[in-house]
Amino acid sequence: MPATPRTTLRRSIAAAAALPLLIGALASCGYGSEAKNDENADAKKNVAAEGAKKLSADTVRLGYFPNLTHATALVGDQEGIIQKELGGTKLVPTTFNAGPSEIEALNAGSIDIGFIGPSPSINGYVKTKGSNLRIVGGAASGGVKLVVNPAKIKTVDDLKGKKIATPQLGNTQDVAFLNWISEKGWKVDAQSGKGDVSVVRTDNKVTPNAYASGAIDGAWVPEPTASKLVSDGAKVLLDESDLWPDKKFVITNIIVSQKFLKEHPDVVEAFLRGSVKTNEWINANQDKAKASANAKLKDLSGKALGAKVIDAAWPSIQFTNDPLAATLQAQADHAVKAGLLKEPELGGIYDLKPLNKVLKAAGQPEVSDAGLGAK
């Protein structure tokens, strides 16, 4: 079970050697080419309204991954909900397949706002000593499962001696699996993956082939990779949501560069209104939202997810404005426990004032930064 989040932050500097591990985090499997601009945006709904009031910036450059745990971005982009809130300020989306590329783009000023997972959020903040990004909202919870070959693994105890894939050394799912193994009392060397269970770091895009060939016996992976494996004969042994209080844990954050937030607070606020309205629309129109997300995936990659895969994957993801800050701290604790990270100082990683302003205006409850907010 995840540790109860501390109310007092531990102050330390992240080890330089550990930083590249977490920055490699993927929130989920990607379905488009890295750093792909949405060239069709102007031909669709995502067009700055002619004659609409322009905010303090001409454009806002958005980064996200083309996968289901980023469906707030997929749907908000596809349906033009975010653009509508931006008015005459044009939304310019770019997609990424990996956390490092998106963090580098944010650091370089190539994007202003991004949807990204907790591990690269932590690492991006620590690497710049808290000087670049802020988490300004949540987007999704859940959507991670342990799926296994039912012919080889029938119970949790059968995992001993087996080969289980995670997406990348030190990524969000890798840390979660290592922590779960530790809670079981099993021993695994975090760096090599060798031990009572063999942890095999495998890119999500090739995990289905690795499973089909017998190179791995299962995987702790996000959606839609988990459901793709199930469609190939695997079975779900564990849903990670069951390990967390209230079955909620952050899988996708909204981050913004501090420079952009300072210079264009009106744009950030408008963007957050768009994300809040998108999540509201998703939760009220699940079937339409699922179809919209899949249409955007097809637009970005040329290939939609099969009905069998998306129908199984979609219900396991919760779309929420709450960044679930306490679970971010817990995930950092798990990385420390696994020996992948020295205790980081995360104070100031959140600035939820713009989001809470939007939520209050919409008559929705405000969300907490768990003591990790900017002063």
Topology as a string of helices (H) and strands (E): HEEHHEHEHEEEHEHEHEEHHHHEHH
- Indicate the proportion of strand residues: 15-25%
Quaternary structure? single chain
Class from helix and strand fractions? alpha/beta
Whole-Å distance between the termini?
31 Å
Indicate the radius of gyration in whole angstroms: 20 Å
Q: Which strand order do you get reading across the main beta sheet?
A: 1-3-2-4-11-5-12
Q: List segments where confidence is low: pLDDT < 50 over at least 5 consecutive residues.
A: 1-34, 39-44
Query: What is the residue-mean pLDDT, rounded to a whole number?
Result: 88
Shape designation: globular
- Share of residues in helices: 25-40%
Secondary structure tally, helices = 14
Please provide the count of β strands: 12
Largest sheet: 7 strands, mixed
Structure commentary:
The chain is of the alpha/beta class. The chain is built from 14 helices and twelve strands. The protein has helices at 19-23, 71-78, 81-86, 99-108, 118-127, 172-183, 207-213, 225-231, 258-263, 265-284, 286-301, 307-313, 325-337, 353-361; strands at residues 36-37, 59-64, 90-95, 113-116, 133-142, 144-148, 163-166, 198-201, 218-222, 235-239, 250-257, 317-319. A seven-stranded mixed sheet has the order 1-3-2-4-11-5-12, with helices on both faces. The chain is globular, with a radius of gyration of 20 Å. Residues 1-34 and 39-44 have low confidence and may be disordered.
